[in-house]
Amino acid sequence: MCGSAYKNRPQPNYCSCVVPVWVNERPVREILTCQSPRTTRTHPRTARRRPPWSFSVARTPTDSIMAQRRSKNKSYRQSYRSCLGAASRLSHTPGWTARRLNTSRRTKSHNITEKVNPEDLALLVKTEWQLSYVTPLYQFRHTQLRSYSRQLSAFITAEKQQGLAVEVEGAQTSFRVSFSAVQGLGETDDDAETVLLQIHSKPVFAGKDEAQKLVWSGWLTCINGNPEYLHLLPKDFTCLPLFGSRGAENLTSLVKSWFQQTFDCCFGPLEINQTCLQWLAALWTNCHIESSIQHLKMIWTLPVEPPLQITYTVNSQDVWELWNSVRNPSLESREEEEAARSIDIEEVTRFMQGLKSHFYRHFRLDLSAGRLSQVSSALGSAKFSGRIKMSNSRYVLTTLTLLTECALLKMPI
Amino acid sequence: MGSMDNTAKRLLQRLVRRIPSQMLKTTLDKWSRLTAAQRQSMDYTESKWALTEKLLAICEENELTVKHIAELEMIHVIENPNLGMWYVFQLMDPQDDAHSVELTQFKEQFKSHLSELIRHVSIKIKKHTDEAVWIRIAWGDTFSRPNHLKPTYVVHYLQTPYVFLTSPTSKQKPLLSQALVLSTRYQAIKDANLSGRKLTAIRDLLMKQYLQVFPTKFPSPLAERNCVVSNLHIEKEQAGSAANRHQMACEAFGDGILPQLQSAVYKLETKFRDHTNKTMTERDEPFKCVVKFASTNLLESLRHSASSGVASTPVTPLLSSVPLKGKNYFVITDNGPGPSSQMKPSQK
Amino acid sequence: MSLLKPFSKLPGLNTANILLVESEEQFQQSLADALVEETSVTVNVRLAKSLPLPMENDESRPRIDLVVFIINLTSELSFQSAEASLKYLDPGYFLGKVCFMVTNARNASSPAERLDAVRKLASSLHCPLLFAEDQTPDGVASATERLLTILKVAAGLVPIATALYVSNLTRCTLPLDIDLPSFD
Fold it and tell me: Where in the cell is it found (chain B) (predicted)?
């Protein structure tokens, strides 16, 4: 949710504080995030056109001073909120985003090699990405990618040169950024086209003829984004909520800060939570018949002293049979095909329960006391810390759909 | 060209890199291959690179060879037994005179047996203060000289059936086993299925050198210590069962500070039994999986999970077998002997 | 199985008794230490891992005025344990003498579904749901303060207010849309 984004990455023009309060005789604890007048930002025009989610609203009886400083958008938000009654989640998110937790998903494998440029696809799979979420981009144009490439190159070079006493000859060309759109990856018309970023650089002491090396890559995507949410976005905003990056940490933060300045958006860490990891375990296992998963490996962390890590690796055939045994009996006739393709959260829960009970029967140790922190198979790996690797292009879309959903859940309203 | 060949130089370089600067002085002092004046001339605040150059020059001057450098390495390894991975092997069926084997005899026997089995081998044996015999073996083969860069270390406590090894390859293991069996006057040797990064910890575990707790009908001081009332107005309703859990956890894993074991691995090939899942329960094939427990101190983690209730008590024999049998690798099947036969159907 | 009953014993003079139920037995200790610091009334704290409570303590146990279930949202077991304990409470307790307190609600590793499940549980039982922060002294202090407010009412130490009345105002209500089908 919005609070967590700002909490982890304090910015000079945000102030946030935790206020435990009672609201309507109901205790709520909210993070109050309010924005000071935007003096430091480079685009004053956006200040007038703040989208609703730029402010996370805290309804506390004590913050009247804060309330006075709020813009019109906020009162709109509040009235919108109050007409929806009790807010869900952490008493924080108004109604229409509350129910974006999917309880069922389709699992058809997508042979996207025909739709998507294989080179682009090759970049996406088989590497581990660090995930973040991004709030909608203001005035992002897919037609301007070339100009963005130039701007970001210049930005990185400028930032890198900060603190250098003497200008280094030819340093302008040391970083080359390329933006490109990956066509054919999106599932629906609402999904904005995926954007791929690559940064090439020449080592400082490299010879003249030496080729530039790829030092950083990243992408922004939206696959099967919640149409309700996407339609509610004001014009001029592009929603590419999922950001994956690979490469030097300082380049990642430079790219992020350029995006923040240029498109007035926010980045935050995207953890892959337990439910999501369980989904992935089930989705991968479900694919075993089409493409071998080799094994299903799960890592649990138990909160004992010192922390106990349990790696539970199950034979692919056995885990697949277990998965089959917990599937809902498929519906008859024409619905059969559809049912075979869709997975229900109850099935996932039963599946995990089966694995846990087999474990408990041997070790009398309840895995529910801990948390699932990693899932991997031949099809990919996912870690709680937000690292994902997709090893098979056929399941890229399924995985990205799930992750897009996780990222959208992080959007401040 | 001096006495130091390429191998000797690389071995020395690697050693200096590995030994922390503050420890280098004491290690070199123990080595006793440098004269007092040479030791005095060393400046330990210099960079590792400079120290290496200096040492190389001294070694050339003293005409030291790779064997001498190997001695230095051995000193370092003996002083730091908790680096690297150690595997435990157990000697079986002692002969009548096995108990009377003493150091000189063992040394002689081991050297001659191993040299008989393999032509190019370099063996160094040293007795450490705590009764342990340390052996460093650099292996060669029929055509090549012993490789001092990849030695195997063997630690054996005389009059005990345990042998600790680092990095033995499958080719060397049978040779080493044979030499060990012959020189210790045993008849066989087997893998004890125990390994860990800390030699002292696995030794303590095998020799039960930790505070063990035995089952008793009477309330133990353990239980009483646990019920200390912090405040008159605070009362623990389930203090009794908490003390009970703690007692059982200590009975299974021991009390106080426990030997630092890093992991335990279970290879399970047992039937899937779950009354809620008929299909899987009726399946004939076993459910194959591997479970690995890992922690900075596995036994303490397990003890805490049992005493805090994360693991149900009494502790399953599968887990308590780690300290009880001194093993951390188990293969569990349904019909085989061992802990699996004591398994009860799901309690869940 | 023995039910814990709210009115089977006589209340003590200017005394309030609270039972903290937490399967992990982590937060309850620091809460208890803070609760007994209260000076205006005598607060007795009983700690339990789960219900039912052992029979042998029945005699010594005072009348429990408020039962608090502490749920750590990062642990599934914590929730399951609280859920299983509920059936050992006399229905009379649910007239304002039970509350839920969750910790780690903002922790990234606690799935949103679990908070929803706790909400549903609390609202179906008409109990208040408190959010607490267990890592900092400030968090413990504010959680203690809230519990004391409810406890004093539940123990009948606040003139005019009754537990039933207050619980009508403080009980957890469910968002209208919590069970709406998702998109897709």
Answer: Chromosome, Centromere; Nucleus
Candidates A2, A25, A409, partner chain C, best to mutate (most C CBs within 10 A): A25
Task: Tell me whether residues A306 and B300 touch, CB distance under 8 A.
Answer: yes
Residues of C in contact with A3 (CB under 8 A): 106
- What is the domain range of residue C157? 17-170
pTM of the full predicted structure?
Answer: 0.82
Mutate to test the interface with A, among B248, B267, B279, B305 (most CBs of A within 10 A): B305
Alpha carbon distance B150, C167 (integer Å): 73
Give the gap in angstroms from C-alpha A298 to the nearest C-alpha of chain B: 10
Interface predicted TM-score (ipTM) of this complex, two decimals: 0.86
Q: Which residues contact B165 (CB under 8 A, 6 or more apart)?
A: B86, B87, B88, B89, B152, B153, B154, B155, B176
Q: Is position C177 within any domain? A: no
- Asked if C45 lies within 8 A of B242 by C-beta distance, the reply is no
**Class of residue B120 by CB neighbours under 10 A (exposed 0-12, middle 13-18, buried 19+):** middle
CA distance A279 to chain B (A): 20
Question: Residue C80 domain-assigned?
Answer: yes
Which of A243, A259, A264 has the alpha carbon at shortest distance from A156? A259
Q: Is C46 on the interface with B (CB under 8 A)?
A: yes
H-helix segments, B254-297: 278-282
What's the rounded Cα separation, in Å, for the pair B240 and B224? 10
Cβ within 8 Å, pair A271-C133: no
In a structure prediction context, what are the per-residue pLDDT tens digits for chain B, which is 348 residues long?
567 788 889 999 999 999 988 888 888 888 888 888 888 888 888 888 999 999 999 998 888 888 899 999 999 999 888 888 999 999 999 988 888 888 888 999 999 999 888 888 889 998 887 788 999 999 887 778 888 888 999 999 888 899 999 977 888 888 899 999 999 999 999 999 999 999 999 999 998 888 888 776 555 555 455 445 567 889 999 988 999 999 999 999 999 899 999 999 999 999 999 888 888 988 889 999 999 999 999 999 999 999 999 999 889 999 999 999 999 999 999 874 444 333 433 332
Phi–psi pair at B273, nearest 5 degrees:
-125, 120
Q: Do residue B234 and residue C47 have CB atoms under 8 angstroms apart?
A: yes
- For residue C137, whether the previous peptide bond is cis, meaning omega lies within 30 degrees of 0, is no
A311 touches chain B (CB under 8 A): yes
Distances (CA, A) of B12 to A119, B2, B55, B124, B148: 48, 15, 8, 17, 11
In a domain, C179, yes or no: no
- Angle (nearest 5°) at CA B14 between B9 and B17: 125
* Residues of chain C with C-beta less than 8 angstroms from the C-beta of A86: 173-176
Q: Which residues of A touch B289 (CB under 8 A)?
A: 312-315, 318, 358
Number of domains in chain C: 1
C1: in domain? no
Chain B residue whose CA is closest to A316: B288
Please, which residues have CB within 8 angstroms of residue A122's CB and are 6 or more apart in sequence? none
Strands A26-35 and A371-377, bridge-based pairing: unpaired
| Kind and range of the H or E run holding A219 | strand A213-221
Contact C106/A90, CB-based, under 8 Å?
A: yes
- For position C133, which CATH number holds? 3.40.50.300
Per-position DSSP letters for A225-237, written without gaps between them: --HHHHHHSPTTE
Contact (Cβ atoms closer than 8 angstroms) between residue A246 and residue A217: yes
Domains and CATH numbers, chain B: 6-79 (no CATH), 86-204 (3.30.310), 210-342 (3.10.20.720)
DSSP structure class, residue C44: E
Residue whose tokens read 């922004």: A220
Q: Tally A–B CB contacts below 8 A.
A: 121
